[in-house]
Design brief:
With 301 residues, this protein is of the alpha/beta class. The chain has a single domain, classed as Ribokinase (UDP-N-acetylmuramoyl-L-alanine:D-glutamate ligase, 3-Layer(aba) Sandwich), CATH 3.40.1190.20. 40% of the residues lie in helices and 21% in strands. The chain is built from nine helices and twelve strands. The strands form two sheets. The chain has a ten-stranded mixed sheet with strand order 3-2-1-4-5-8-9-10-11-12, with helices on both faces. Strands 6-7 form a two-stranded antiparallel sheet. Strand 10 and strand 11 form a beta hairpin. Helix 1 packs parallel to helix 7, helix 5 crosses helix 6 and helix 7 runs antiparallel to helix 8. The protein is globular and about 55 Å long.
Length: 301
């Protein structure tokens, strides 16, 4: 094997030509935080699907296998982490599972961070047939999993309407494989805030944390991808889930606020911002990503 860079991520998810979602949202923060990032794009679109139209290509499982074979044959398939996000087809997801197993066989210390992107707010935006693949093949090999509330419910069969439900769902996810489970966002709080919950098991000892933050009245795209990337980076750097959570959420809230403030100025008073005006201000947030001002604290549960 070629010498492995200290921190190197293979990131398999969607990408766009314009804007920030999928790999475009994940690669920059990881690079800024000192990781080499190699990307495989599950889909390549002109822009995200929230615009009036989008065009592009979808990779199939054979394309994925071909790219991975090229890495292996050149002895450049050694990574410290693998990160996965949006994947739209069952066969592609099954191939991802094969690749993770292959990479972990040659490097048992490899960490797999899985953002099981399937849907939100009660509806799936990938085919239902991906769900059993996530449950049966992906969760058993994932080290860290970052579903939102809807995805956690789909993966566990637990309806989450309070913190106790969320802890129960996280426990079920632990039992399927991942040592660290983070429900990135849940909206059961009666005061309209968003709650992020995290649980990790180390040597039989469990730690559970909760971060509560204000819901910003706007729709952002690419925030989940940014969340998973920042969490991966800070968990690796600090080896501390509480701190990683605080830094990740503080980063996101800062980026979201900067994005919305700019979008409102561009749209003009009384006008709704366009999808293009609402693209995440990632590059402009470089200093915040590198050194997040801690605006949110995780409570120990």
């Amino acid at each position: 094997m070629a010498d492995m860079p200290e921190k190197s991520v293979l990131s398999i998810q969607s990408t766009v030509v314009f804007g920030y979602v999928g790999n475009k949202s994940a690669a920059f923060p990881l690079q800024v935080l000192g990781f080499d990032v190699s990307t495989i794009n599950s889909v390549q679109f002109s822009n995200h699907t929230g615009y009036k139209c989008f065009k592009g290509q979808v990779l199939n499982s054979d394309d994925l296998a071909c790219l991975f074979d090229g890495l292996k044959e050149n002895n450049i398939s050694s990574f410290s982490h693998i990160l996965t996000g949006y994947i739209g087809s069952k066969s592609f997801l099954e191939k991802v599972a094969d690749i993770v197993v292959d990479l972990k066989t040659s490097n048992p210390s490899l960490l797999y961070v899985c953002d099981p992107v399937m849907g939100d707010h009660g509806k799936m935006y990938v085919p239902e047939e991906l769900l059993p693949v996530y449950i049966e093949k992906i969760l058993p090999i994932a080290d860290i999993v970052t579903p939102n509330q809807f995805e956690a419910e789909k993966l566990t069969g637990v309806e989450i309407s309070n913190v106790e439900d969320a802890i129960k769902a996280m426990q079920i996810l632990h039992s399927k494989g991942p040592k660290t489970v983070v429900i990135s966002s849940s909206e059961f709080a009666t005061d309209g805030t968003i709650i992020c919950l995290a649980s990790t098991v180390t040597n039989g000892c469990k730690e559970v944390y909760k971060v509560q933050f204000e819901k910003v009245p706007a729709i952002f795209v690419g925030t989940g991808d940014l969340f998973a990337a920042c969490l991966l980076a800070w968990l690796e750097k600090d080896k501390n889930l509480k701190l990683a959570l605080e830094k990740t959420i503080s980063t996101l809230q800062n980026v979201i606020k900067r994005t919305l403030d700019r979008a409102r100025v561009l749209a003009g008073e009384g006008n709704a911002p366009t999808p293009a005006q609402m693209e995440l201000q990632l590059v402009q947030s470089k200093a915040v990503i590198e050194n997040p001002p801690l605006s949110h604290t995780a409570a120990v549960l």
